[in-house]
Amino acid sequence: MYKVAIVTISDKGSRGEREDITGKELKKMVDAHKDYETVLETIIPDEEFIIVNKLKEIADMEDVDLILTNGGTGFSERDVTPEATLSVITKEARGIAEYMRMESMQITKRAMLSRGVCGIRNKTIILNLPGSPKGACENLGFVIDTLVHALDILKGAASECARK
After folding, report:
1. pLDDT tens digits, residue range 81-91?
2. Which domains does the chain have, with CATH numbers?
3. Which of 32, 117, 132, 158: CA 20 to 30 A from 21?
4. CB 35: neighbour CB atoms within 10 A?
């Protein structure tokens, strides 16, 4: 079973001015999947240095396989999650983010405005999701099963036959 951390990035949420509905919906979705369990949930503000430090802390010190961020992937001045993530990861996994955008654009053309990225730090995958509950869950739904295989490979659990 792969361990998941959910990091909600929201100024209002971090100050207790808004309920974290997206994080709760992602947790339900993750915990309903047979291959995952949520082991950490946190809410932090849209501050690049805080996001960087939290992602490093979780990937480097926690026993977590997958970090799902939600929020901060749009065009507003405060949306810095992709930049923070890019500064933390050592390998980018562009295909995952591209696939989520491609599938999302079948639902709404506004999906092209999502700047979310995906990558690897150590043996942890970090995936940026939109801040809206609907967008975050749809995007995770597009890749959640394939991420199991990605984690199998990253953790060395995939068989030789599966790698060929």
Report:
1. 999 999 999 99
2. 2-163 (3.40.980.10)
3. 117
4. 16
